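step: validate -> pass
step: tokenize input -> pass
step: predict -> running
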Amino acid sequence: MKKLIAIDLDGTLLSSHIEISQENIKALQEAQEAGHIVMICSGRAPEDIKIVLEKTPLECPIAGSNGTMVIADGKLLSQVSIQKEIVQSVAKILNEQKFPFKIYTNKGIFVAKTWSERMLIFLEENPDIAKGLTEKEYKFMTEQPKETDTIKHFEKVEDILSNTEITIQKFFVPTLSGKNELITHLKDVKGISVTTSGPYNIEIMDVNGHKGNGVKVMAEYFNIPIEDTVAIGDNFNDVPMLEVAGLSVAMGNADPTVKEMADVVTLTNNEHGVAHAIREYILKK
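step: predict -> pass
step: emit ->
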């Protein structure tokens, strides 16, 4: 029976060295050869996911920016965007509290021109994080990202909103100190959902923008019943897809809460946990 297998990237398919192992690639190819559809469902922007996949022989449909942009066969199947007035409300809260943030859009990732100075303040206020960084990582985090085809700078969020061709799918906010206070402030903003893909960030989408929706859209496109879907993930932004999937698989390195709610737990991302799950729970059947 044909299945749809939705796989997260960071902490799941990617090892801690940010690589897809040959073992995982082979297992995904085996699943595809057996007639299953393998999709990547990540918090990363679609352009970012494509860059990761280009380093491998894999070709997969994708749901980027936490399932808010679903793409298969070169077509945009679904796009869930945050309303512009809500974007302004969120940006106002982030600016008042001087949080660094990135805005994920249909035209690439927009990074505030204040990113570098705000990241330096963030690391000063969170010395435990700073202490754990190598010199290279510290430089990478605090440097103003260079403008490319997919990364653009902005001064005021209104500069982005004034372009009628741009739609906004996600805010990405590095945070630790002040995290709970920020989440409390964001509760006053109607129409958004707040999640996290790691201990040092929060991600803000439209209330209907999540990985569960991404899986549903893809299942419908490929005419696969939702009970014949499998989701593999490790963190809180994966929970919506783990909840909708017929079989939910948590990584061995997953957050304990995520492990608890999943149907099964596989090996860690450094032990080819995705390959193990595919061979154990899908190809064996």
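step: describe -> Residues 84-96 form the longest helix (13 residues).
step: cleanup -> pass
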